Amino acid sequence: MAGNACPVKVKIDNVQKIYKGRTGETVALNGVSFDIAENEFVCVVGPSGCGKSTLLNIIAGLGSPTSGKVYVDGQEVVGTGTERGVVFQQYALFPWLTVRKNIEFGLKLKKLGKREITELTNRYLDMVDLREFADSYPKELSGGMKQRVAIARAYAVNPEVLLLDEPFGALDAQTRTQLQSELLKTWEQEKKTCFFITHDVEEAIILAQRVIIMSARPGRVKEIVNINIPYPRTQETKMTPEFLDLKNYIWSQVYQEYLAVRK
Ligand SMILES: Nc1ncnc2c1ncn2[C@@H]1O[C@H](COP(=O)(O)OP(=O)(O)O)[C@@H](O)[C@H]1O
Ligand SMILES: [Mg+2]
User: Fold this and answer.
1) Which pTM does this prediction carry?
2) DSSP 8-state class, residue 46
3) How remote is the C-alpha of 13 from its chain's centroid?
4) Is beta strand 75-76 parallel, antiparallel or unpaired with respect to 67-72?
5) Distance from the alpha carbon of residue 174 to the mean position of ligand 1, in angstroms
6) CATH 3.30.200 applies to domain 1-83+203-263
7) Rounded distance between C-alpha atoms, residue 142 and residue 43, angstroms
8) Which residues surround ligand 2, an ion (CB under 5 A)?
9) What are the domain boundaries of the chain?
10) Ligand 1, atom 25: nearest CA belongs to which residue?
11) Dist CA 199 CA 62 (whole Å)
12) Which residues of the chain register pLDDT less than 50?
């Protein structure tokens, strides 16, 4: 866990973000600080508009903080980098490329050899069980399959940190549950530092070692909850008393923030 034996992978240090628009300023984040340990799985929950995506984009280097800093391995983040991979809710696949070519894209940017590219692509196609759809185009796939391609593509370039912004948010409950299991299995096999944003408290608890609850805008860390449920976790884990206690507790904390937004 962060702060103990495991080295800090990502450090978020007093991050503030103010958007300046024609109608005035929006303070999206205010004084956000926490560490993510190497190989840790952290989920972030909080009401819509509390700055979750803003924070993820700053860690990804797609946006910069107004003040404060983010560090990866002690190095200040000043832009995007191949050690950080991002998965968004809306697949973000190239529609004109096949599934295989979508996965190969990042590997070609890394200037890997042809054989290595094919091997890695096959391995991650297998990981997400899509080998038989390698030559299909995104429009021929279901939402769940497209999101599997996005995850395979992110994993294939072997980033050290995976940043996922509500990746399963647009999927039906059954597909979502299936992809949660797949992601957990993958994380247990090939540990990576995961920063995963979700609206879904149950999803956060089944995946994460720690859940960060954010307060309503301006986004701050309201509370960080340790999820001391051993892995492997399965769908049955969701029925256990400890899971249900955590779900009730975190949900009530998030709900307070929803109410604050509605005021
Ligand atoms: N590019 C932008 N310009 C101006 N305001 C923005 C921009 N992006 C986000 N915001 C505002 O910042 C706040 C936080 O947004 P966001 O990070 O998307 O929240 P979340 O992902 O938690 O829903 C919201 O009030 C949103 O309207
Ligand atoms: Mg968002």
Assistant:
1) 0.93
2) -
3) 19
4) antiparallel
5) 29
6) no
7) 25
8) 52-53
9) 1-83+203-263
10) 49
11) 22
12) 1-3
- Tokens in use for 104? 């190969």
What is the distance between the alpha carbons of residues 99 and 121, in angstroms, rounded to a whole number?
10
Cβ–Cβ under 8 Å, residues 213 and 34: no
pLDDT given at position 3? 47
Residue nearest atom 7 in ligand 1 by C-alpha distance: 19
For residue 214, the ligand closest to its alpha carbon is 1
Rounded distance between C-alpha atoms, residue 206 and residue 204, angstroms: 6
**Backbone dihedral angles phi then psi of residue 3, each to the nearest 5 degrees:** 90, -20
Q: Would you state the pLDDT for residue 190?
A: 85
Distance between CA atoms of residues 231 and 104, nearest Å: 31
How large is the greatest C-alpha to C-alpha distance in the chain, in angstroms? 58
Q: How far apart are CA 221 and CA 117, in angstroms?
A: 41
Q: Looking at the CA of 48, which ligand is closest?
A: 1
User: Which residues contact ligand 1 via a Cβ below 6 A?
Assistant: 19, 21, 26, 28, 46, 48-54, 217
The conformational region for residue 111 under phi > 0 = left, psi -120 to 50 = alpha, else beta, is left
What pLDDT does 31 receive? 96
99-154 per-position pLDDT tens digit: 999 999 989 988 899 999 999 999 999 988 899 999 999 999 999 999 999 999 99
